[in-house]
Amino acid sequence: MDIFHDMKKFRTGKSPEGHDLFSVPLEPDEDRMLGRECPNEECQPKYFKMSTSIPDEISKKGVEFSQIEVTCPYCGSFDNMQHFHTKSQIKWTESMILRDVAKTVQDMLKSPFRPIHSTPRGMFSVSLTYKAGTSSQRKTLR
User: If pLDDT is split at 50, 70 and 90, which confidence band does 107 have?
Assistant: First the structure.
């Protein structure tokens, strides 16, 4: 059984350790900028924005935007852009994955807990129903 619903389209495979890998696009702001956070714990203020447009010299090399090397404008730390996600971007992505897993669990529980309408045959009668909870609304994050 596949545990992913909305996030299935972002699944890119599995890591060598067997963990699911995802590539979740983040929406840029109105100026086509993405928020980034330096992974260096000692860096301050850490947060900066970067453009989502790729310079011609990089696009000619066929480099995907998500694989660009980034330099922190504050401390000079240099790494792949994937290491510069903000804590809120990571939290949002994790919550979307958890929402999909919760939906799968709810779907699994619907089947065995269908309402049973039996006629009472003795002094006691047992009735069991299952009602799925509501999931959080999906929000976009920049």
Answer: confident
Number of domains in the chain: 1
> Looking at per-residue confidence, does 96 or 47 come out higher?
47
Measured CA to CA, the distance from residue 108 to residue 114 in angstroms comes to: 11
Residue % of the chain over a pLDDT of 90? 30
Domain encompassing residue 58: 6-104
